[in-house]
Write a structure and sequence with these properties.
Helix 3 packs antiparallel against helix 4. The protein contains 5 helices and no strands. It is elongated, with a radius of gyration of 25 Å. It is mainly α.
Length: 180
C-alpha cells in the first residue's frame, strides 16, 4: 500500500508539473463544465451540449454509486477482519483499528480515483463522438442531392465545415495539420 501511495503521489506531481510546461489542451472541453468557455467555441450547439451534460451527469452519478458500493463492501470486509483479529487477539486492537481505518480510506479514495477518472475519459470520448457525428451529418447534408446546391457552393460549404472542424481539433489537440 505504501508503494502505491508513493507511486500515486509521484504521478500526481508529474502530472501537475507537466501541465505547467505543456498545456493540457485535450482537457479543453472540461472548461465548458466550469463555465470558462462557451459550448459554441468548441463546436457544440444547444442540443449537443444538453446531451453531453446529461451523459456526463449520468456517468458521474454511476461512478459515485460504484465508488460508494465498492467502499461499503471493503469497509464491511475490513471491519469483519478487525473484529476477528480483536477476538482472537492476534494483533493489538489499536493497531487493528488503525489499519482498518487506513485501508477503508485508501479503498474509498482509490476507487473514487479510478471511477471518476473513467467517467471523465468517457465524457471526453462522448464529446469527440458528438463532434464527429455533427461533422458527418453536415457533410451528408451538403453532398446529398436534395440540397440543390451548385457544385461551387457545395465545395465552399464543405471547405468551411472541414476548416471549422480542423480549427477546433487543433485548439483541442494541438498537433493536427491545419487545412489552408
Amino acid at each position: 500500500m505504501t508503494i502505491w501511495s508513493i507511486y500515486v503521489a509521484i504521478l500526481c506531481r508529474l502530472f501537475y508539473l507537466g501541465e505547467k510546461n505543456q498545456l493540457l489542451t485535450w482537457l479543453t472541453p472540461f472548461a465548458v463544465f466550469k463555465g470558462l468557455i462557451s459550448p459554441s467555441s468548441i463546436g457544440l450547439d444547444v442540443g449537443m451540449t444538453d446531451l453531453w451534460f446529461r451523459k456526463t451527469k449520468k456517468m458521474l452519478n454511476k461512478s459515485i454509486l460504484l465508488t460508494n458500493v465498492q467502499a461499503l463492501l471493503c469497509i464491511t470486509m475490513f471491519c469483519m477482519m478487525a473484529y476477528r483479529r480483536h477476538h482472537t487477539q492476534s494483533v493489538p486492537s489499536t493497531s487493528s483499528i488503525f489499519w482498518t481505518i487506513i485501508l477503508c480510506l485508501w479503498t474509498y479514495f482509490g476507487s473514487a480515483l479510478i471511477f471518476v477518472s473513467y467517467s471523465y475519459f468517457y465524457t471526453l470520448a462522448t464529446y469527440f463522438r458528438l463532434r464527429f457525428s455533427k461533422v458527418n451529418n453536415d457533410i451528408i447534408t451538403i453532398i446529398s442531392p436534395e440540397t440543390r446546391l451548385k457544385p461551387n457552393e457545395r465545395c465552399a460549404m464543405l471547405y468551411h465545415i472541414l476548416c471549422e472542424h480542423n480549427k477546433i481539433c487543433v485548439e483541442i489537440h494541438g498537433n493536427l495539420i491545419v487545412i489552408e
